[in-house]
Amino acid sequence: MLGRLNHVAIAVPDLEAGCQVYSAMLGATVSEPQIEADHGVTVVFVELPNTKIELLEPLGDNSPIQAFLDKNPSGGIHHVCYEVEDIIAARDHLKAEGARVLGDGEPKTGAHGKPVLFLHPKDFCGTLVELEQA
Questions:
Q1: Please, which residues have CB within 8 angstroms of residue 94's CB and are 6 or more apart in sequence?
Q2: Whole-number Å distance between alpha carbons of 42 and 15
Q3: Helix, strand, coil fractions of the chain, as percent rounded to 5
Q4: How far is CA 29 from CA 20, 46, 81, 90, in A?
Q5: Cβ atoms within 10 A of the Cβ of 98, count?
Q6: Which of 40, 50, 84, 106 is the most buried (most CB within 10 A)?
Q7: Whole-angstrom Cα distance, residue 108 to residue 114?
Q8: Residue 130 annotated to the active site
Q9: Distance set, CA 28 to CA 20, 81, 109, 117 (Å)
């Protein structure tokens, strides 16, 4: 069911500083910031040869990323995103296996303009998992 690793998301308290780490210190190509109001974040993508790193900054105090940063003030890995061919089939299979889909269980549009779902970290070895339709 799982396809390739799409990205690893890192929550950061300061997006500009995070971009500097990846561009100046590590020499990576970093995208322009994108506001994702539906998800309560501003994101950039760090392009790597085999995947991406997504840097997430909270967009307002009600952002789920703000809650993460309240517990982890320096930031840290927030989630991993895997591609799936058919997000509805993947959701239905995972629910049948007992996995919990967060939110209302319906896909939302993610930062790449594709349907995404999030899976409860307690069901996946303590890791928040995002599924993105390939």
A1: 101, 119
A2: 8
A3: 25, 40, 35
A4: 10, 6, 20, 32
A5: 7
A6: 84
A7: 8
A8: yes
A9: 10, 20, 26, 28
List the beta bridge partners of residue 8: 53, 80
pLDDT at 61: 87
3-state secondary structure of 125: coil
Closest CA to 78 of 13, 2, 1, 3: 13
Could you say which of 54, 57, 83, 130 is catalytic? 130
Within 10 A of 37 (CB to CB), how many other CB atoms are there?
Answer: 9
- Please report, in angstroms and rounded to a whole number, the separation of the first and last CA atoms in the chain: 11
Distance, in Å, from the CA atom of 45 to the CA atom of 47, rounded to the nearest integer, reads 6
Task: Please report the pLDDT score of residue 55 as a whole number.
Answer: 98
Domain 2-133: give its CATH architecture.
Roll (3.10)
**Residue ranges, the chain, pLDDT below 50:** none
Q: What is the pLDDT of residue 100?
A: 98
Q: Which of 86, 85, 89, 65 is nearest to 76 (CA)?
A: 65
Q: Using DSSP, state whether 70 is helix, strand or coil.
A: helix
